[in-house]
Design a protein that fits this description.
Layout (H helix, E strand, L loop, with lengths): L1 H19 L5 H20 L6 H20 L1 H23 L11 H23 L1 H25 L3 E3 L3 E5 H22 L4 H32 L14 H24 L5
Antiparallel strand pairs: 1-2
Helix pairs in contact: 2-3, 2-5, 3-4, 3-5, 4-5, 4-8, 4-9, 5-6, 5-9, 6-7, 6-8, 7-8, 8-9
Length: 270
């Protein structure tokens, strides 16, 4: 437990320093490239017929793709759109696992590149709008996870996806949704000055982002279960791998970044 807490504190410190210590984009840029590269390596280790050479090649590819996508914003938009499409299909995959596992094939290498590149570029984009909006995204994801954990532990009876993640319950899901709804309303009430329709749009975006975070967690759990491993890696003592820490953000970040982009297009300036 001490090791887990120590690792978490170090991670939080690094992320907060990159987010708030300077207005320069280089620390955050470097952090995203590093996270994307490591996540790409870990993703490839979960693939069918994985080999060490594939893992290193995928890490290198992920590094190059992340750099390009971070530099060219139009490329990032394409990754976000493709990512959201994949997450839509993943709902069917998790719902029908393990009876259907046709998704577990070499195409997952490409899917991993899309999902990871979309996530890290989305995180960087939200940070570019404001570090506080990125903090809000983190709080939504943490709130959904924490609410689900505590409510599910106390009241959980009905399993949400027993074949994918046996510890997650329907009651826990509602607990996470209720907690994050309170967070959303609190932020809207104290910090946003929008019209009624704009408030509704922002709430819907935030709520969908939370649902996305739940699906991201389930999808990574399903891949690990299919690959027969407990953690995606061991680089983070007490926490597993980078993918284990950002699984919820894989889906949540592109959804939220796309929503902010679309809201800005219709004149909602957050």
């Amino acid at each position: 437990m001490f090791e887990r807490i120590k690792t978490a504190l170090v991670l939080v410190a690094i992320v907060l320093i990159c987010m708030f210590a300077t207005t320069s984009h280089y620390p955050m840029y470097g952090l995203m490239v590093l996270a994307g590269t490591i996540a790409g390596y870990e993703w490839s280790k979960l693939m069918p017929q994985n080999q060490s050479v594939h893992a290193y090649l995928n890490a290198g590819l992920m590094c190059v793709v992340t750099v390009i996508a971070l530099y060219y914003s139009d490329v990032s938009l394409l990754f976000w759109a493709a990512s959201i499409l994949v997450w839509g299909f993943s709902v069917f995959w998790t719902k029908n696992f393990p009876e259907y596992d046709g998704w577990y094939n070499k195409a997952l290498y490409l899917i991993g590149v899309v999902l990871i590149a979309a996530a890290v570029t989305a995180i960087f984009s939200v940070w570019s709008v404001s570090p506080w909006w990125l903090m809000y995204l983190f709080v939504l994801v943490w709130g959904a996870d924490s609410g689900a954990y505590f409510v599910g532990r106390k009241f959980g009876r009905r399993k949400m996806a027993p074949s994918v993640s046996p510890n997650k319950s329907i009651e826990g899901l509602f607990g996470g949704l209720i907690l994050t709804s309170l967070i959303i309303v609190g932020v809207q009430s104290y910090y946003l000055h929008l019209t009624l329709i704009q408030h509704v749009l922002f709430f819907v975006l935030s709520f969908i982002t939370v649902l996305g975070s739940v699906q991201g967690d389930l999808f990574e759990s399903m891949i690990k279960r299919r690959a027969g491993v407990k953690d995606s890696g061991s680089i983070l003592p007490g926490h597993g791998g980078v993918l284990d820490r950002i699984d919820s953000l894989l889906a949540a970040a592109p959804i939220f970044a796309t929503g902010i982009y679309l809201l800005k297009l219709i004149g909602v300036d957050l």
